[in-house]
Backbone:
């Protein structure tokens, strides 16, 4: 769920635009099969789109149905997931990746009602359990990604704002896990996914400070974007974009790793080639199990797959390179 830096208004449906931070030089999805020490395991690719019920079928026609085997959506705390999205996932036999957001549905981190301590006290247990029950029967197994990117200052649950800290985030995560387990059992998977780099990059805001423990997570991951030469940033290829985060996060928990959300503009470089390089990162990231493409145009850039004929072709080649498959074994998210 990308957001801009400095923060800007968040569209109602999408809840965000990509993370754009002038301090950085470098915010749909996928699931993989079993990990491979050679980085050759198959990777399943999906997307985030603003209105998947309307747009996923069209994308599938352009790039092939396997490109929409995972559908990424956001759900605000206390709200029910749109039943039409559940039906879409069932009809297409797609995996849902549900990003759960404890906030009011508006931009800004100063939201006292949604501080981490309130999540940890169980304020949202009921709605979380209901959400897990709503999706637990889906196949492939659904994933819930609670409170992503806590190592940034942009959200109500971020660890450096709204009277939060990393310890209150960890307590909130553990409470979320209990509520999800009550509703979905082990069938609903939980993904812990910070931003690829901490903002601000200070000693009290490091990625590991937010880790709830290996027993608390089923999957791990990170999000990050190539904004190109926008706002004083530089063009950054996928491997250097995620390398440090992959190393740090898999050291905490050597579990299936997801690039939980990513995309590239074409400002200052070749977006089609960037897609090709994204497919090749699994050679360096042997635990890589999934990739989610942010298929949206917003004020930070055009991340859409269909931006041009060249990017559409490149995405199709990216899918082929990822060795997509539909085996039942993928359902286990091992």
Residues:
């Amino acid at each position: 769920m990308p957001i801009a830096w400095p923060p800007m208004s968040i569209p109602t449906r999408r809840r965000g635009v990509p993370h754009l931070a002038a301090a950085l030089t470098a915010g749909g999805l996928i699931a993989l099969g079993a990990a491979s020490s050679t980085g050759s395991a198959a990777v399943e690719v999906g997307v985030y789109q603003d209105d998947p019920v309307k747009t996923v079928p069209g994308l599938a026609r352009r790039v092939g149905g396997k490109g929409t085997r995972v559908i990424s959506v956001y759900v605000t705390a206390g709200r029910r997931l749109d039943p039409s999205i559940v039906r879409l996932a069932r009809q297409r036999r797609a995996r849902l990746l549900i990003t759960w957001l404890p906030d009011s549905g508006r931009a800004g981190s100063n939201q006292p009602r949604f501080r981490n301590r309130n999540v940890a006290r169980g304020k949202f247990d009921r709605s979380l359990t209901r959400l897990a029950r709503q999706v637990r029967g889906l196949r492939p197994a659904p994933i819930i990604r609670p409170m992503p990117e806590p190592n940034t200052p942009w959200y109500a649950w971020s660890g450096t704002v709204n009277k939060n800290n990393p310890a209150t985030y960890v307590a909130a995560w553990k409470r979320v896990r209990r509520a999800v387990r009550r509703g979905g059992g082990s069938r609903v998977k939980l993904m812990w996914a910070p931003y690829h780099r901490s903002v601000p990059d200070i000693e009290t805001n490091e990625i590991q400070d937010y880790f709830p423990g290996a027993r608390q997570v089923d999957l791990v991951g990170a999000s990050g974007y190539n904004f190109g030469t926008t706002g004083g940033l530089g063009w950054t290829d996928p491997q250097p974009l995620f390398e440090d985060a992959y190393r740090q996060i898999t050291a905490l928990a050597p579990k299936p790793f997801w690039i939980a959300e990513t995309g590239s503009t074409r400002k200052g470089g070749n977006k089609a080639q960037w897609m090709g390089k994204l497919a090749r990162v699994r050679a360096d990231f042997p635990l890589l199990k999934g990739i989610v493409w942010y298929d949206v145009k917003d004020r930070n850039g055009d991340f859409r797959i269909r931006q041009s004929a060249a990017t559409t072709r490149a995405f199709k080649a990216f899918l082929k390179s990822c060795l997509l498959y539909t085996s039942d074994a993928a359902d286990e998210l091992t």
